Amino acid sequence: MLSGLLIVLLPLMLGYLVPLRHAGALEWVNRGVNASVYVILLLMGIGLAGLDDLLVGLSRMGGQALQLFAVISACNLTALWWLSRRLELRMLTSPVVAGAPTTKLAALLGSLSLVAVVGGGVLLGLILGWLIGGGVYVHAERLAEWVLYALLALIGCQLRNSGMPLRQILLNRHGLAIAAVLAASSLLGGLLAAPLLALRWNEGLALASGFGWYSLSAILVGDRLGPLLGGVAFFNDLTRELLAFVLIPLTIRRHAPLAIGYGGATAMDFTLPVIQQHGGVACVPIAVVSGFLLSLLSPPLILFFLSL
């Protein structure tokens, strides 16, 4: 039962064992991760084009993603609001960072560009299927699997060389608390949503374990459960990030754990500049630790639940 899990986790662990001592090498790894994500999402779009009834399948995918997002977000917001009342993060009242290096428009466009890649893959798949035949969808799935292994190895290397010492992570109790509450409430939401989506309990948990890391969750879920559910995972986690851009400026002053936590794994990268801009420099270590822990937790959890 766990053999598939070990096969996919192996490149992640091997990548984690590789130390990078040169900034240039890490830059190439980062570029490789970005390129791999775009390639796999393009291949996922090609796989979606191979559905027997494409329009019905896409409609179903959108409906399931919306239901999953609604249930998980309700659990997340309730749990994080409770945590906000328990944790006193007065440090977040520090002055806003002047000229923080971010624009919400650029961040949103970066997210939406991934949607465009999936859409482009669907169009390309329809064209190739008409020109070549249905075999193109099988080849796309096989190629996506091999690119996935390379991506996992690169992600493992990124996590190893992220510059976050284990001691710093374990001693940041605010970041630990936020990550734990977000993860637990997301898994509860996945369990509650599973029967609504006619899914097995472990599939609901797997879909809920992306924690906002939409590119990786879509790839891992799509590899095991097909492009339709991969698309559900993608749009569920992407919508989390888009809503986080709206919630952070509105809530971070009075409910900092909610603002930091709702972004999930993106708190260490995509939503971090917005958190810094509106919450102040003191909230940055908390956001980075929370996002790092959720990023570290997400791939093993998804793969574990999919192996059950």
Task: Give me a quick take on this structure.
This protein has 308 residues and is mostly helical.
Can you describe this structure?
- With 308 residues, the protein is mostly helical.
- It has 13 helices and no strands.
- Helix 2 crosses helix 9 (214-225) and helix 2 (23-49) packs across helix 10.
- The protein is globular, with a radius of gyration of 19 Å.
- The termini are close together.
Q: So how many helices?
A: 13
Unreliable stretches covering 5 or more consecutive residues: 91-102
Shape: globular
How much helicity do the residues have?
over 70%
Give the strand content: under 5%
Please compute the radius of gyration using only Cα atoms: 19 Å
| Global mean pLDDT | 81
What topology emerges from the helices and strands here?
Blueprint: H1 3-16, H2 23-49, H3 54-86, H4 104-131, H5 135-160, H6 166-170, H7 173-196, H8 201-208, H9 214-225, H10 227-251, H11 256-262, H12 272-279, H13 284-307
Helix pairs in contact: 1-5, 1-13, 2-4, 2-5, 2-9, 2-10, 3-7, 3-10, 3-11, 7-8, 7-11, 7-13, 8-13, 9-10, 9-13, 10-11
Please name the defining characteristics of this protein:
308 residues, 13 helices
